[in-house]
Amino acid sequence: MSLTAVPAGLPTPTGGAPARPPAPAPAGLRATARIGAVADGRGSTALPLLAGEGPLALRRTRGGPGEAGVMLVGAMSAPLGGDHLRVEATAGPGARLVLRSAAATLALPGRHGEPARYDVRLRLGDGAAVRWLPEPLVSVRGSDLRVRTRAELAPTARLLLREEQVLGRTGEAPGLLRARLTVTRDGKPLLEQELACGPGAPGGWDGPAGLAGHRALGQLLVVDPEFAKAPPQAGMLGEFAALTPLAGPAVLVTALAPDALRLRELLDSACAAYGW
């Protein structure tokens, strides 16, 4: 007669083979912030859904006329390697919403070398208007962050989206940053782009055809049905900034700068020049 030894704490299945231990829980923090905005029928916007978790704390702020404001406040250091953070915002028909962050987001290395993820999803109903204006994302040395931003717009929705990335703190080499932006309008693709910078990114990202030594990069995406009638003309907005009309009622401003301060000045100048 043969005997099968089973480690303590594991049930003995019928058939003699020991049960497999449960799969380890995923490392890192999981947190989601959810925002829901609706037009209140009186020319203003209400926030029936405002729920944050972990490092993603949400605060109501004052917006523009008829606009609800939300501030994303970092309640702890994140994202670290292995973390997965999500921001999900929905603006119903006719709602107006501005989303900001209180401070820059620092992508930090984790203990086990795992990548971190930061996902943003924006949904805009007919006649909705959303401004997504976070502070810069700083890629810290040794970090590995994957950012995914998705915006889904109804045909008459308007969107102003700003993204700013800073590669390393002062005097510091950057971590690995991979960012993807996907925008659809009326269910059809409007913009799909991907960026990879830092150690491990495809070669040439820092060369003359890439960032050319700059350490701050950013963009403004403006989607407005009015552009179908009279889109802004393509052109340079400085030595390292350009405006490009897209194949749809949208324009994209891209800019490079030596630091975050100069980058913000370039993007703010574009907003002021075109009344965005």
Q: Can you describe what's shown?
A:
- The chain has one domain.
- The longest helix has 15 residues, at 260-274.
- The model is unreliable at 1-13 (pLDDT under 50).
- It has one helix spanning 260-274; strands at 30-39, 45-51, 56-62, 68-74, 84-91, 96-101, 105-107, 116-124, 129-133, 137-139, 144-153, 158-167, 176-185, 188-197, 216-223, 235-238, 241-245, 250-257.
- The radius of gyration is 22 Å and the shape is globular.
- The strands form 2 sheets. Strands 3, 4, 6, 7, 9, 10, 12, 15, 16, 17 and 18 form an 11-stranded mixed sheet that branches. Strands 2-1-5-8-11-13-14 form a 7-stranded mixed sheet, with no helix packed on it.
- The protein has 276 residues and is mainly beta.
How would you concisely characterize the structure shown here?
The protein is 5% helix and 47% strand. By secondary structure, the chain is mainly beta.
Which helices and strands, and how do they pair?
Elements: E1 30-39, E2 45-51, E3 56-62, E4 68-74, E5 84-91, E6 96-101, E7 105-107, E8 116-124, E9 129-133, E10 137-139, E11 144-153, E12 158-167, E13 176-185, E14 188-197, E15 216-223, E16 235-238, E17 241-245, E18 250-257, H1 260-274
Parallel strand pairs: 1-5, 4-6, 5-8, 6-9, 7-10, 8-11, 9-12, 10-12, 11-13
Antiparallel strand pairs: 1-2, 3-4, 12-15, 13-14, 15-18, 16-17, 17-18
